[in-house]
Write a structure and sequence with these properties.
With 325 residues, the chain is an all-beta fold. 0% of the residues lie in helices and 54% in strands. Strand 10 and strand 11 form a beta hairpin. It is globular. It comes from Arxiozyma heterogenica.
Length: 325
């Protein structure tokens, strides 16, 4: 395994990290947390060295599930369906008008000049960024929205019940999309569209990743990952987060085993296995051409049958891993 450099982010929130976004235009990193804070970091790259500074940490007053940068501010989604725009200069919060969601906004993603928000209660809402208003909404009745991804050509939405809703752009009121079954048997944790637009990749709680193609379904395949084999038993860990290296078929997977793996979809093989970063699970990833950002949090509460009142989760962390070393 090749050597690589790891830089640790300073002053990271201790609570569970809900989202992690990298904005390459200005080398800004957004870290949102269940404790209601949004941390804004800057990465300064000079002579192949990386300096990470915390520019500001904003307490929004509500538990954040998702964030998305846009228009010199950040769109924020909350556990109870809150949907706000945060002005990073003034730190003012503006509520998005006509928001119908009453349950968690799990993801907010850019869509042409606007943004799409998806919620647990089955709403897809397109935000008009000029008016900070909902310009179009759709109700998905087939299940709870778990996660989603989109480009200017496609929108893919993961639902409970192992269902996936596929939309071709543009998203209109008449566009009902196509409901398909996931090839994976267990609940999906993340989905990412392949950068060349040929299909999508999904990761599930049973340590599997499936690769699906829009025009060539016979080429689909799946593989196992994030497993630990002992002499007489095999431990299987959820695949929590997926990320493509920009404009490539190189896929990173992050799991509850605390590890990150790197795969080539073209060659259908593992390229690299990174060392375990800490005792937490890898919960979110982001990154650019030369580095990978990895957020780790204690997600043991997801598998514990009983959580005691004095439960103290391990502190969260964010790391920068330099690639191609």
């Amino acid at each position: 395994m090749s050597k690589y450099v790891i830089e640790e982010f300073p002053n990271v929130t201790k609570d569970f990290i809900s989202d992690l976004k990298y904005i390459p235009e200005n080398n800004i990193v957004l870290v949102s947390s269940w404790d209601g804070t949004l941390s804004v970091y800057e990465i300064i790259i000079k002579d192949d060295s990386y300096k990470i500074t915390l520019n500001k940490k904003i307490d929004t007053g509500f538990s954040i599930l998702s964030c998305c940068y846009g228009n010199n501010g950040v769109y924020l989604g909350g556990v109870h369906g809150e949907l706000y725009f945060l002005n990073l200069k003034t730190q003012d919060l503006a509520e998005i008008k006509n928001n119908r969601a009453k349950s968690g906004i799990v993801r907010i993603i850019p869509y042409y000049d606007d943004y799409i928000a998806g919620s647990w209660d089955g709403y897809l809402q397109i935000i008009d960024h000029h008016l900070q208003d909902i310009k179009l909404f759709k109700t998905i009745e087939n299940g709870k929205i778990l996660t989603m991804d989109c480009t200017n050509e496609h929108l893919v939405v993961c639902l409970t019940g192992n269902k996936i809703k596929l939309f071709k752009a543009p998203i209109t009121q008449m566009n009902e999309g196509i409901l398909v079954d996931s090839v994976l048997k267990y609940q999906t944790r993340d989905i990412k569209l392949i950068p060349d637009g040929s299909g999508y990749v999904i990761g599930s709680i049973d340590g599997r990743v499936a690769v699906e193609y829009f025009d060539n379904p016979s080429d689909q395949f799946a593989f196992r990952c994030h497993r630990m084999k002992l002499s007489d038993v095999q431990f299987v860990f959820p695949v929590n987060t997926l990320l493509f290296k920009p404009n490539t078929d190189i896929l990173f997977t992050g799991g509850s085993d605390g590890c990150v793996s790197c795969w080539s979809l073209r060659d259908r093989r593992k390229l690299k296995q990174y060392n375990k970063l800490d005792e937490n699970s890898v919960v979110k990833m982001a990154g650019g051409e030369s580095f990978l950002l990895v957020a780790t949090s204690d997600d043991s509460f997801k598998t514990n049958a009983i959580i005691s009142s004095d439960f103290e989760p391990q502190p969260s962390n964010v790391y920068l891993i330099v690639l191609n070393q």
